[in-house]
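Regression check, beta-D-galactopyranose case 926:
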Amino acid sequence: MPIMKPRAMGFNAVSFYIFWGILEGKRGDISFEGFRDLQPFFDAAKQAGVYLIARPGPYINAETTAGGFPGWGTHTPGLWRTSNASYTEAYAGYIKEVGSRIAANQITKGGPVILVQSENEYSGWADGYAEDPVYESQLMQAFRDAGITVPLTTNDAWPGGHYTSVDVYGYDSYPNGFDCSHPYNWSSDAVPEWLWGSHIQFTPNVPNALYEFQGGAFDPWGGSGYSSCSVLTGPEFERVFYKNQFAMSTTYLNLYMIYGGTNWGGIAHPGVYTSYDYGSAIAEDRSLREKFYELKLQANFLAVSTAYLTTRPMNIYNTQGSFTGNSALKTTQVLDVVGNKTGFYVVRQADASNNDTQSYTLNLETSLGALTIPAIGGSLSLNGKDSKIHVVDYTAGTTTLVYSTAEVMTWATIDNRDVIVLYGNAGELHETAIKFDGATPPAVKIASGNGKIKQKALVGGALALQYTTSGQTVVEVGSEVLLYILDRKEAYQFWVLHPPSTGDMTHFNTDNPIIVKGGYLVRTATVNGNVLSLTGDLNSTSNFEIIAPAASSRTVTFNGQPLLTTKTSYGTLSASKKVVLPPVVLPNLSSLPWKAANSLPEISAQYSDALWTVANHTSTVNPIQFTTPVVLYAGDYGFHTGNILWRAHFSATGTETAFKVDIVGGSAFGYSVWLDSTFIGSWVGDPAVSEFEGTFSFPKSLSKGTNHVITILQDHMGYEEDWASASDDFKTPRGIMSYSFIGSPLTVVNTWKVAGNLGGEEFIDRTRGPLNEGGLYGERQGWHLPGFDDARWSSGNPTMGISQAGVSMFRTKFNLNIPQGVDYPISIVVGNSTSTPKHFRAQFYVNGYQFGKYINHIGPQKAFPVPQGILNYHGENTLAISLWTADATGGNLESLALQITSKVETSMPAVVNQPSPGWTPRPGAF
Ligand code: GAL
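Current build output:
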């Protein structure tokens, strides 16, 4: 994941889940091989100066298959998420292993980890069960035994007072919900003012910790797509909802997600698709949304507002009309109850759904006594879906702002001058009052920009300045204050950087700020003597303004190239940098040579399933009891991901007319059925359907006593999560719940067989892990891997597709040669006409890694980002695509292309490719 970007945004920590099921695909065999190695991630965080909050579960939720539990949990007896021994024994090895790796990277050992979360949302229970304090303390003990010494936390699903025995209790909240299809609908009372009350009720003595606050939303199969989710949770949402949390004195705020990434392989639970973009500030392809820039304003404000840390909200539930006299507004008074100086007044619309602009004046107590603001006349305004924090008696270096209605983005004392960066919406009227000593107010001089300033000396020794926030105006107030008055778009361009200090935690430095305006992303500032080196990403010509100590910025470089700087009249540096974004021609996937092979030999008369697993269990520990003669739950035979195949051998009575079968696979799953070599139908899938009973007619009657086989190919959309503790919901089977032969109730299946990924829990691909490949013939054979010899395959490509129901695998190779020094994320993009969609499913394998699962008639995802490192940007790539057509007439991808989704020059260090071991003979493959 991008780890420098949150830091550049002004955040100081990142939390991350660890997925037990992917580390321990086989019970007792815990692997940190390949992508599962946590150490490079810990090292990158330390290098970026980002503290880490580890969240290893064992239950994580997170829209992952089984909520992070391993597949083998589905056939382990006893209730999970309780103190039941079969569960606590199951997680013991994992917690020990993962815990010791986290422990080695704790801050006390010079690492970046500052907190470890125990469980996740241990907040709801199946009927008849309740919070299990024995489980809670056993789990904490397991972390302690593994060497964790930093505080343990937990994330309650709301401030409900569950699992408060951890060191620093906290909760989560998703106040705008997950309906991305109506991104502008906010309910009137969506803003959760009550969270502070609950915090005080349960855990008044720890920080008000919000371990997950809505940073986006997930989107289901057939959903409206992540760009809608990014609107639902866009900059307006961030302003209103995050500032409300600041009104609640939230001193730990973690956003879920800042970066959601990709549910590659079988990571997802059935409720989400491959992309886990989440509509977050950092998009799946690592590009930055406007949300990122809005967050940067808020994060930097908090970083310099230390008085905030000791505040309390003073008038919860009594906010409507207060301080403004306008009942359409709510204002929370947040006072520093330790420093007893500073106040924060958080203003928002009383009705969150209101889009009207409100006018108001503020009536506040200040160190100058009671004031009506604006003091120079006129009124303030608040747009619909907006919120502001007005500061009172706010310290910025040696300067005190008696008040500012324009919001503070940051301030820094540089060369003995307090540089204060203020912003508002374009065209808004604002007022800021600066305290002064002595009898005469300081001189005010517009140093640059077109803004006009009205001024008035206030009784008690402050100079009020009134202005509108439009563009950028720089104002010198005396010789000691430099004000930047900005509109929001200008403010978005400011970055606050801290050159590394000395010592071990050098990159965590928060002293000696340098402010840089300009650039899509400024990552780092380093000072060496009088040379200031900046690094970052640029997407177009950038005009920089650099506010840095003169002595350490005689020479300035950006990404290693000198910047030609000129000094402004007020002592800052300006420079311009052109950006070269070299053109790149991507291979045209439709004109590449492709090879094709049938990946469903199972339906040919010659096929032998002798090596398949016989499904012959006559009992299961699964809480859902089986009604078939033998258990037909794929998980009971060790198959937990991807496509599953079933074979039913029977001897005909001669009166069978159809096969009826009830299969469960999770939301949007599908299945296709063959009688011997003849396709007899499909359930094509629907996002609202997790289990479907279909009846598939036989084309002709069978002769009495003849032997036949039904072959079923089903999709496995991942296991359900296990949100309600003690529910064992994650054990909900994937497989066959019932079957019968219509016209012949007495027909007996004499053997059931099942095939899933080769080896099942003894998965073959140690590098890519247990969830990468499924049970298609081509997957079992490793056709998706680089280096497989497809020379004898015929030509054929996925846009030509196949002309009947079945499965084919397509392979091609291409070279990429993307220049160094740029970040050009690439996606695989498919075409999709929704008029009369064909019913098919495709999986995209890039260098053996499954980075896309596409369901043509369900969608919505059409672009599948494949990160650099999985894609080899400097050499050969193998793309393999499985295509399962559910219609008798077959199907094909409408189009297929590689696409660059954003272009920046970057200082990102060279990306090391993930290990992508090639095909080797697979003993026992069938
Ligand atoms: C939270 C949960 C997360 C994730 C989120 C929704 O309640 O803790 O793991 O599932 O909901 O995206």
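Comparison notes: Residues 60-63, 120-121, 155, 157, 172, 212, 218, 256 surround beta-D-galactopyranose (CB under 6 Å). The first strand starts at residue 13 and ends at 17. No diff flagged against the previous build.
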